Automatic annotation (TrEMBL):
The lineage of its organism: Eukaryota, Metazoa, Chordata, Craniata, Vertebrata. GO terms for biological process: double-strand break repair via homologous recombination. It comes from Crocodylus porosus (Saltwater crocodile). Residues 23-50 form a coiled coil. InterPro entries: DNA-repair_Swi5. GO terms for cellular component: Swi5-Sfr1 complex; Swi5-Swi2 complex. This is DNA repair protein SWI5 homolog. Keywords: Coiled coil, DNA damage, DNA repair.
């Protein structure tokens, strides 16, 4: 349904059937996934009811992914600089006017 718009991180099963997992455990996991799917569908419906368009949602998700990629690259560079200087990344935050919550 509409939840295709959201990039879901699928968790690997806690164990595989070959590990002796029982049917009840699998059914419980299936139930949890169905509940998550329903919750996402409801969230999408709410956003659409609030006037967001599918194009807007897709663009927003795309921008969030881009932001996260850029932030990860920045964190990696900050970490490398900290190692070179013999500091922690936390020590470098003030130098670059960063907040710890950034």
């Amino acid at each position: 349904m509409l939840n295709v718009l959201f990039a879901l991180q699928i968790q690997s099963p806690r164990s595989s059937p070959s590990d002796g997992i029982n049917k009840e455990t699998l059914q419980g996991e299936i139930k949890e996934l169905k509940e998550k799917d329903l919750a996402l569908d409801q969230e999408i419906a709410q956003l659409l009811a609030e006037g967001y368009s599918l194009d807007e949602l897709e663009k927003h998700i795309s921008l969030l992914h881009e932001y996260n990629d850029i932030k990860d690259a920045g964190q990696m560079l900050l970490g490398k600089l900290a190692v070179i200087r013999g500091l922690t990344t936390k020590d470098l935050y003030p130098e670059f006017d960063l907040e710890l919550s950034d």
